Amino acid sequence: MNRERAVEIFEQIAWLMELDGENPFKIRAYQSAAQIIDAHPADIMALAAAGDLNGIGGLGAASRDKLCELAQTGHMEFFEQLKAKFPPGLLDLFSIPGLGPRKVAQLHRELGLGSIADLQAACSDGRLAALSGFGAKSVAKLQEAIAWQLTQRSLFRQDAAEVLAQTLLEPLRAHPACGQLGVVGELRRGNEVIRRLELLCSSSKAELLLGDLAASRPQSRLEPAARWQSLCWQDDSGLPCVLHVCAPADHAHAQAWLSGSPTHLQAMQTRASEQGLIWSEQGLHQGNTGSALELQTEEQLFAQLGLQFIPPELRECGREVAAAATGQLPRLIELGHLRGTFHNHTTASDGRASLREMAMAAMELGLQYLGIADHSRSSVQANGLSAERLLDQIAQIRALNAEFAGQIHLFAGSEVDIHKDGSLDFPDEVLAQLDYVVASVHQSFTLPAAEMTARLERAMRHPMVTMIGHLSGRLLARRAPYEFDLQRLLEVAAETQTIIELNASPWRLDMDWRHWPQARELGVICSINPDAHSTRGLQDLLFGVRAARKGWLRREDILNTLPLEQVREALGHKRRTHGLG
Length: 581
Description:
Blueprint: H1 3-19, H2 24-39, H3 44-49, H4 61-73, H5 77-83, H6 101-111, H7 116-124, H8 136-152, E1 156-157, H9 158-173, E2 181-184, H10 185-188, E3 193-194, E4 197-202, H11 206-215, E5 221-224, E6 228-234, E7 240-246, H12 251-259, H13 262-274, E8 277-280, E9 283-286, H14 298-304, H15 319-325, E10 340-344, H16 355-364, E11 369-375, H17 387-403, E12 409-417, H18 428-431, E13 436-440, H19 449-460, E14 467-468, H20 486-496, E15 499-503, H21 516-522, E16 526-529, H22 541-550, H23 564-577
Parallel strand pairs: 4-7, 10-11, 11-12, 12-13, 13-14, 14-15, 15-16
Antiparallel strand pairs: 1-3, 2-4, 5-6, 6-7, 8-9
């Protein structure tokens, strides 16, 4: 049982309790427990397995006992009993954008709906349109949402796949027949969503290793390949998993082959052919004699093909092979290049850690500076700050900077809502007190593309807006991006010198890596921000760096690789061009 699944279970308990008409205080207790479990900086599942959860603030006795039960047994009797009161597919309805507990309860109570299939039928036969609170437009939007959501059901976020990978790798490393071991496939390439988790292990005793693993997974199946064997099974979360086992001499070849997308592999095979070689699942061979070429490392494969080494994150779309052939691959950003970050929340809005706790955690990560950007007043659901509360927070930040001088610098910012018309949530005289402003869309996601584009453009043209947060508004596998003219907005960002955030939260990874090469060519600057709502959330910078690497970004393309004094200058540059500072 991992942390992500535990959070999901506590959230689902809260949903089901609301459907069951439970006391609102009890419901909030489980919602709070889900947030605490998600944000706790230590390995809370290991603590729960050891029964050592005392002293975790906000986690009540009932929640502690249930979390311990989950960690120790892999299930929770209370959750199973609660689920049994409702149709098995009812929880799936919560994955449909626009359906919260109240609407799901209404659909279940008045129409007897218990699954997405039931909802589709009710949309089609007119029952839903006749229901109070719904109508033809609502039904049409729900049908679109259902269609989109069904395409996402087989997708898993990168962070969830990463956690599962680590739980699988640890016992495999301890196996006596295990040699070289690591992640391949989509996760090694840093894809934002994963359809299949793939691991590769070299072994001279493949039968022993595969037999032991298969014995612990009765539903697994063995699939022989050209040069290796693959054991396939499905994790409890539904994520398909594969362990590939190859001979030690085949490891470099298998690692390269299993780490590339189909498009990348095709481009590599074409390159091999141009060099008089043949590269396939069988290995690398001379084209004229068929003799095999031995490979000790992936680097040797690329060298044999006359290519620069292609980092795994770039092995995606094929053009990386042409760039590697001419020495044009960029030197990609690395996690160690980041000196600080922006867009972080505290308990002042919807974060789980205080201003001081966030600063201390950033120092532990070796950061030189940290930008605070709690929500603005219109984000009522996130306890957004009023102008008065924001000004008080600015004073607190200034005081902490005096205390922490020489250790870390805190930048006072705000994540300011962009209203429907493109205006901002605070007046200019308040914004002028801040070191920087992150402007974000948090409501009215369904505007027509032209209106959404105009909305975002107006915000970009505001002289106080330093950067745009999570540009497309997407939530991976949960909510589709809203519609807008990306080309137009990238041009405006370059023109107005507005920074575009790469939101490193594994829920977002927004702006999409596919658009960063275009943005870089236009001169748009990126800031990799974790959108952290806890001290642990700061570690999501890793996912942002992976996405930046997939987007071909270099150190010099990223705002927060700059040292403190230079980043201070960069944050004020746009204002100065407007004569405001």
